[in-house]
Amino acid sequence: MEEPSQSTRHEHMTEDQLRDVTIGEPQVIGGTVELVEYDRSWPELFAREAGRIECALSRLALRIEHVGSTSVPGLAAKPIIDILLVVTDSADENAYAGALSATGYVLRIRESDWYQHRMFKGEDPIVNLHVFSEGCPEIERMLLFRDWIRHNKADCALYERTKRELAGREWKYVQNYADAKGAVVEEIIGRARACRHNSP
After folding, report:
1. Domain map of the chain by residue range?
2. Looking at residue 12, what is its pLDDT?
3. Which of the two residues, 18 and 8, has the higher pLDDT score?
4. Is the pLDDT at 9 greater than 80, yes or no?
5. CA 9 to CA 106: how far, in whole Å?
6. Which of 2, 13, 52, 104 would you call most buried, defined as having the most Cβ atoms within 10 angstroms of its Cβ?
């Protein structure tokens, strides 16, 4: 299956674009974003949810990874566990959405023009479950970013400073906050790729 270019996703989503990909009403925060100090229970919560997802999907779950800020020890984050789920074809919702729904996950985002990304919400704990197809370039980006800031103290500190500064501003939607972090995320990924390219 040919993947669309990453550039087909809007770098700064307008309200209309957000509504186009959201199932139901986008959640309005109408204020600042809550960041909390790193919680040592986050890896345990991820492991519990990963087990539930694996049990529900069995061999359909090709890979399950803890991603996002809660996957980086010591990093302040929104208290939401981000999980990456890799399946054969994320566009084929009939293959996996029912099993996830039975486990308590609700489909909230469908981005057909951006790698067929799907995002499900879980509530206990609060989870953003991102679903991509096997071989999707976004998988490599997410894991590269996670692994780099886990081990590069300077870029981890840069990312946290950026997050804290942006979180203190007023936002209508969390997506607006996420979009605002894009430039520093790309800067960090660029350094991570350069380092990997130059490694013997």
Report:
1. 14-198
2. 87
3. 18
4. no
5. 22
6. 13
pTM confidence score: 0.93
Q: Are 109 and 56 in contact (CB under 8 A)?
A: no
Q: What is the pLDDT of residue 7?
A: 38
Please measure the distance between the N-terminal and C-terminal CA atoms of the chain and give it in whole angstroms.
32
User: Helix count (H) and strand count (E) of the chain?
Assistant: 7, 7
Q: Report which secondary-structure segment, H or E, holds 142.
A: helix 137-151
The values of phi and psi at residue 111, to 5°, are -110, 85
How far is the CA of 169 from the CAs of 26, 172, 176, 194, in angstroms? 19, 10, 11, 32
Give the tens place of pLDDT for each residue, 63-72.
Answer: 999 999 999 9
Query: What single DSSP character describes residue 58?
Result: G
Give the per-residue pLDDT at 8.
46
Q: How many CA atoms are closer than 13 Å to the CA of 190, on its beta-carbon side?
A: 6
- CATH number for the region 14-198 comes to 3.30.460.10
Could you give the CA distance from residue 156 to residue 136 in angstroms, rounded to a whole number? 25
